[in-house]
Amino acid sequence: MSKSKKLKELITIDTALTTPVYKQIVQSIHRNIDQGVLGKDDMLPSVNQISAEFSLARGSVFTAYNELRSSGIIDSIPGKGYYVLSTETNLTKKIFLLFSTFTPYKETLFNALLDSLPKTCSLDIYFHHHSMKMFETLIREQAGYYNTYIIMPETHEDTQGILGKLDPKRTFLLDVGFREYNKTFPGVYQNFEKDIYSILMDSQHLVSKYKRLFLIFPESVRTRDIIAGFNKFSKKKMIQTEVLHAPDLGRIEEKDAFIVIDDNHLVDIVKFAREKKWQLGKDIGLMSYNETNLKSIIANGITTITTDFTAMGQAMANMILAGKGEVIENPFVIIDRQSF
Q1: Mind listing the pLDDT tens digit for each residue in 9-24?
Q2: Cα 155 to the chain's mean position, in Å?
Q3: 258 and 165 within one domain
Q4: How many CB atoms lie within 10 A of CB 165?
Q5: pLDDT tens digits, 110-159
Q6: Which of 28, 72, 101, 289 has its CA 20 to 30 A from that of 302?
Q7: Residue 256 sits in a domain of what CATH number?
Q8: How does pLDDT run across 192-241, given as a tens digit for each residue?
Q9: Please, which residues bridge with residue 241 across strands?
């Protein structure tokens, strides 16, 4: 059997159809895989062969092969050509998920996202660990190998250019980057500046119990919009305020209140209050960022301010399944356990 005949058995093109040519190529490969004609690791016709056989623009063939590769069906080997990587043609979404790190609350987010996706979706998770080099490398190496990209970005001057390597119609941002990127990329974001300001304004009856209010903001934390929102509240001059990188235990006085981000600082202040025999929510105030189950039992319960990570995961899943490019500000709530 000639190569020409083999090629025409694999690829069916009908220019009279309204279906784009590249889609017909994709459908042909899918059909041959489903019928067992093509199996895992089988080589495929080259772009030049298909282009010459059907008098097609090479760009149309590249578009077809790129779509097949982004859905995980095919891949290529330099110098050898394209081959069948997977026979799972029923997958509708092949998702690249890039987190910064994996913390308890991000685990809640991940599980909510995963549980909200149907079985026709596959999801691979990666971590950049707040390294711009790792962030760029992962995106560069995985560009084109997935048909959906969900990214927890770094807020850096190079981020926009790195994200530009991805198809903007298939790229969604998660959690951070609202101020910097919401006009460019759809996603489900925290609006850190607005969230802390709104919570404090709505909790004036709690804040007024104290003489001083401290935001403990570690130098390693990158979401500096929290400081902007806190300083905006400070301008209301309802209470003396200060931003510290770590709690200064030697300066703590009765009727001080603290908003903490790092859980180690949370433990430091709880232990200090216990040594002083101060009651949380009365003698000293303590409010912690990001809800976890553990905070419901520490010191009889710690008041938390938190985005709804379950809602964030569900909203992201709904967005990519519906194919809508929306910008959603995720709900931010206070869980009052009388420690503040």
Answers
A1: 899 898 888 889 999 9
A2: 13
A3: no
A4: 14
A5: 999 999 999 889 999 999 999 999 999 999 999 988 989 999 999 899 99
A6: 101
A7: 3.40.50.2300
A8: 999 999 999 999 999 999 999 999 999 989 899 999 999 999 998 889 99
A9: 213
Domain residues for 220? 193-307
Q: Which residues pair with 259 in a beta bridge?
A: 215, 287
205 and 301 co-located in one domain: yes
> What is d(CA 177, CA 223) in angstroms, rounded to the nearest whole number?
9
The pair of structure tokens assigned to 250 is 């030697």
pTM exceeds 0.90: no
How close are the terminal C-alpha atoms of the chain, in Å?
Answer: 80
Domain boundary among 24, 57, 84: 84
Q: Are 297 and 155 in contact (CB under 8 A)?
A: no
Indicate if 80 and 154 belong to the same structural domain: no
Written as six digits, the tokens of 300 are: 């009889």
Identify whether 178 is part of a domain: yes
Same domain, 107 and 184: yes
Kindly tell me the burial class for residue 322, based on how many C-beta atoms sit within 10 Å of its own C-beta (0-12, 13-18, 19 or more): exposed
Whether 337 maps to a domain, the answer reads no
- Tell the residue number behind the tokens 């093509």, with chain if given: 38
For residue 229, the model assigns a pLDDT of: 97
Q: Can you give the pLDDT at residue 3?
A: 45
CA distance 123 to 316: 13
